[in-house]
């Protein structure tokens, strides 16, 4: 059989731990036998980030701007415990995703992958809920400090004109913590545009939530910008019979729980981080959630929403065969290949992505699943190792 050809490469960002193992297996079993794969490879594994002083992450993000499509494996974000685990680390490197997002800007759309045999925990959810997470700024690009002594904290802005705005944050009577964060109107605008366009593309209602009653200037600006940008899309929304509305984040949470699904929920950066894990878990499994970063200038970075599955990796290192779910990582690959096919005008590549996704869903519906789904499935299912699951998908493909 002739392999499917690609015109333009995609950016391939390798990662860490169990997902790095799955990455190799997915390529070998499901992609390389069928596609003449062209990628520009960047090793974002922690040790290579350390060896390159994290330059590799910046290079991978820059390459994504050039090639337009990337696929990324989950990566370790080092913390104090990782510094002990990897004594060779010269710095507590920043989250690669935060670095990539601050270079590409844009919005992360996370959608659960629904299968008939796994029912959502929330009984009334019938359709997927897509969380649209603003991927720039707030606490992910903040500065913070700890003070051991009493004193006064101020927020000071010095304009280019020389004008100074100054507020007292707090007169601290004792030790405490402080944080300064920001966002840019241009980034919020592109977040709003991305959400309205995605709603139109997928013909779904758009909700946006924040906390403008408490954060009148910061969150209030988000709300105003969404209202302003919506004017550009209002007519198209009316034509399609879809709606946009803004509500407070706590009200949104209550409404989401009572909803039937089938809409996009736009969230600020932190809310989106937290809510997408809640939504994916309630729909079934964190391992059944797709994630794509769409930048304002039309670049796409696909990944799984879950992490490197450390606990499974330690079992793998002990020689155990694990039953880690590769579906979200497979869908990261299919998302990237389909987008490449759309941009390059190579429909065979899009069709391959469709068939691979269908093969995954058919395998799960047939009761051949990984451990996370075996415990959730309403149909009789057997828990396969990751390797056996991939083989079962390959046989259908
Ligand atoms: P995690 O890797 O998502 O895993 C948390 C737990 O969720 C696992 O222990 C496992 O539960 C379950 N799980 C997640 N993905 C699964 C899969 N594909 N198949 C089966 N079960 C799955 O989160 P974490 O343990 O908090 O983080 C581990 C590392 O990942 C950290 O170093 C973190 O920095 C990094 N991380 C990276 C990204 C990213 O690159 N996008 C995102 C999040 C976290 P059981 O153990 O109960 O089976
Ligand atoms: Mg997260």
How would you describe the overall organization of this protein?
It is a single chain. The chain folds into three domains: 1-118 and 298-397, Isopropylmalate Dehydrogenase (3-Layer(aba) Sandwich), CATH 3.40.718; 119-141 and 183-283, Isopropylmalate Dehydrogenase; 143-180, no CATH class. It is an alpha/beta fold. The model has no long low-confidence stretch (mean pLDDT 95). The two termini are 13 Å apart. It is built from 15 helices and 16 strands. The strands form four sheets. Strands 2-1-3-14-13-4-5-12-10-11 form a ten-stranded mixed β-sheet, sandwiched between helices. The protein has a two-stranded antiparallel ribbon with strand order 6-9. Strands 7-8 form a two-stranded antiparallel ribbon. A hairpin with a 5-residue loop joins strand 7 (151-158) and strand 8 (164-172). The protein is 43% helix and 21% strand. NADP nicotinamide-adenine-dinucleotide phosphate binds at residues 74-77, 97, 286-287, 303, 306-311, 324-325, 372.
- Kindly state the mean pLDDT as a whole number? 95
Bound molecules: NADP nicotinamide-adenine-dinucleotide phosphate, magnesium ion
Counted up, domains total: 3
Helix content: 40-55%
The fraction of residues in strands falls at 15-25%
Strand order of the largest sheet: 2-1-3-14-13-4-5-12-10-11
Distance between the termini: 13 Å
Unreliable residue runs: none
By CATH, the architecture of the largest domain is named 3-Layer(aba) Sandwich
Radius of gyration: 22 Å
Largest sheet: 10 strands, mixed
Morphology call: globular
Q: Counting H and I runs of at least 4 residues, what is the number of helices?
A: 15
SS-based class: alpha/beta
* CATH topology (level 3) name of the largest domain: Isopropylmalate Dehydrogenase
Q: Could you name the CATH class of the largest domain?
A: Alpha Beta
Number of strands: 16
CATH level 4 superfamily of the largest domain = Isopropylmalate Dehydrogenase
């Amino acid at each position: 059989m002739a392999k499917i050809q690609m015109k333009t490469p995609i950016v391939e960002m390798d990662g860490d731990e169990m997902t790095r193992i799955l990455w190799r297996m997915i390529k070998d079993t499901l992609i390389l036998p069928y596609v003449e794969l062209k990628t520009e490879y960047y090793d974002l594994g922690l040790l290579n980030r350390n060896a390159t002083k994290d330059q590799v992450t910046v290079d991978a993000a820059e390459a994504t701007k050039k090639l337009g499509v990337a696929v990324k494996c989950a990566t370790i974000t080092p913390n104090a415990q990782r510094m002990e685990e990897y004594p060779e680390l010269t710095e507590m490197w920043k989250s690669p995703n935060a670095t990539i997002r601050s270079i590409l800007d844009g919005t992360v759309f996370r959608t659960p992958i629904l299968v008939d045999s796994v029912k959502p925990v929330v009984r009334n959810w019938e359709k997927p809920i897509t969380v649209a997470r603003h991927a720039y700024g707030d606490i992910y690009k903040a500065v913070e400090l700890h003070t051991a002594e009493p004193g006064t904290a101020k927020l000071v802005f010095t304009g280019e004109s020389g004008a100074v705005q100054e507020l007292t944050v707090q007169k601290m009577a004792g030790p405490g913590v402080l944080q300064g964060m920001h966002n840019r109107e241009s980034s919020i605008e592109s977040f709003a545009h991305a959400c309205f366009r995605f709603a139109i593309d997928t013909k779904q209602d758009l909700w946006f939530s924040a906390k403008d009653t408490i954060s009148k200037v910061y969150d209030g600006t988000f709300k105003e910008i969404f209202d302003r940008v919506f004017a550009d899309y209002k007519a198209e929304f009316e034509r399609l019979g879809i709606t946009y509305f803004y509500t407070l984040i706590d009200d949104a949470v209550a409404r989401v729980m009572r909803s039937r699904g089938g809409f996009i929920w736009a969230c600020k950066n932190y809310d989106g981080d937290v809510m997408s894990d809640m939504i994916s878990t309630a729909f079934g499994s964190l391992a059944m959630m797709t994630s794509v970063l769409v930048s304002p200038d039309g670049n796409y970075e696909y990944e799984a929403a879950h992490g490197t599955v450390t606990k499974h990796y330690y079992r793998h290192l002990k020689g155990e065969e694990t039953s880690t779910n590769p579906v979200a990582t497979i869908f990261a690959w299919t998302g990237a290949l389909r987008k490449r096919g759309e941009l390059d005008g190579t429909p065979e590549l899009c069709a391959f992505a469709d068939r691979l996704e269908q093969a995954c869903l058919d395998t799960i519906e047939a009761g051949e699943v990984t451990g996370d789904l075996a415990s959730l499935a309403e149909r009789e299912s057997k828990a396969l190792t990751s390797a056996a699951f991939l083989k079962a998908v390959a046989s259908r493909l």
